[in-house]
Amino acid sequence: SCVNPNHLWLGTPKQNTTDMLKKGRNKQPRGERQRSAKMNWISVRKMREMRACGIPVKALQREFGMSYGAVWKIVHGATWIE
Description:
This protein is mainly alpha-helical. The protein is built from four helices and no strands. α3 (57-64) crosses α4 (68-75). The longest helix is centred in the middle third of the chain and has 12 residues, at 41-52. It is elongated and about 55 Å long. It starts with 12 loop residues before the first helix and ends in a 7-residue tail after the last helix.
C-alpha cells in the first residue's frame, strides 16, 4: 500500500507481473482474512461437525444463510482448508 511516487516505475503489464511474482506479492488472503469472508474458523468447524453428525447440506445452508454450493465446498474441504 505504499503510494510513494519514488517507489513506482514504468513497465509493461508483463514486467509488472514478473516484478509482483519476484517480490511474492501474488498471494491472496485466505479464510477469515478475506474482506468478503462470511465465515470464521469457529463457524466452519461447527458446520463440519454438524455435517459429520448427519445434518444435510440443505439444512446447513438454511442455518448459516449460505448457498448450497458454498456449504458443500466447506464441508467437503474444497474451501477453508486448514
